[in-house]
Design brief:
- It is a single chain.
- The protein is α/β, with parallel strands linked by helices.
- It contains 7 helices and 8 strands; from the N terminus they run E-H-E-H-E-H-E-H-E-H-E-E-H-E-H.
- The chain has one domain: TIM Barrel (Alpha-Beta Barrel), CATH 3.20.20.
- The protein has an 8-stranded parallel beta barrel with strand order 1-2-3-4-5-6-7-8, surrounded by 4 helices.
- Strand 7, helix 6 and strand 8 form a beta-alpha-beta unit.
- The N and C termini lie close together (7 Å).
């Protein structure tokens, strides 16, 4: 098994960017759903994206938004990966893929409560899937035993922290891990030391594989 890739989600400020630049995860996420507390406006996100370490790929996160709205955000902020974190169907994914000419990678998030959710995720039309406890950023995890035999590449999310990510990797064998609230300080922004510790823990686990 290869070392899992790392995504730090929910960047909003220059301080958040500096925190991830100091650790260099593989991905970072901008929340483009105005109803979420970690929402960032697209013009702000584009300025932050330009300050990102070029080795970090920016992801735009959307929740039950229209194709037209997603395309508008993509015209304002140059992200090349879209994460769909709502109830988007395979038909929606194919429509968005058509409108972007296949140039944008699609990640579909699934809330895992039971075997039926696992089956839906395994058969998703998205390029990649993300398995989570809920909408995202709740700091809660799900029963990792449900995905022990998951048969396609996936991101694991939900309650991951520097303290438990190695256990999660050992039990669930994800291809990538995604954290947000577990890497924040009391002010709700990314804590540079927590981000560094998280990235170090993942890469240490990869060296032991």
């Amino acid at each position: 098994m290869k070392m899992p890739k790392i995504k730090v989600c929910g960047l909003r400020t220059r301080g958040d960017v500096l925190a991830v630049n100091g650790a260099v995860p593989d991905y970072t996420g901008f929340i483009f759903d105005p109803k979420r507390k970690r929402y960032v406006a697209p013009d702000v996100a584009e300025k932050l994206r330009q300050e990102l370490n070029p080795f970090i790929e920016a992801v735009g996160v959307f929740v039950d938004q229209s194709v037209e709205e997603i395309l508008w955000y993509l015209s304002k902020c140059r992200v090349r990966t879209v994460q769909l974190h709502g109830h988007e169907t395979d038909e929606f994914i194919e429509e968005l893929r058509l409108h972007t000419g296949g140039r944008v990678k699609m990640i579909k998030a699934f809330r895992i409560d039971g075997e039926e959710d696992v089956t839906k995720a395994e058969h998703s039309a998205a390029d990649l899937v993300l398995l989570d406890h809920g909408i995202g950023g709740t700091g809660e995890s799900f029963d990792w035993a449900l995905i022990r035999d998951f048969n396609r590449p996936y991101f694991l999310a939900g309650g991951l922290t520097p303290g438990n990510v190695q256990e999660a990797i050992d039990l669930a064998h994800p291809d990538a891990v995604d954290a947000s609230s577990g890497l924040e300080g009391a002010d709700g922004h990314k804590n540079a030391e927590k981000v560094k510790a998280f990235v170090a823990a993942v890469r240490e686990s990869g060296m032991m594989m």
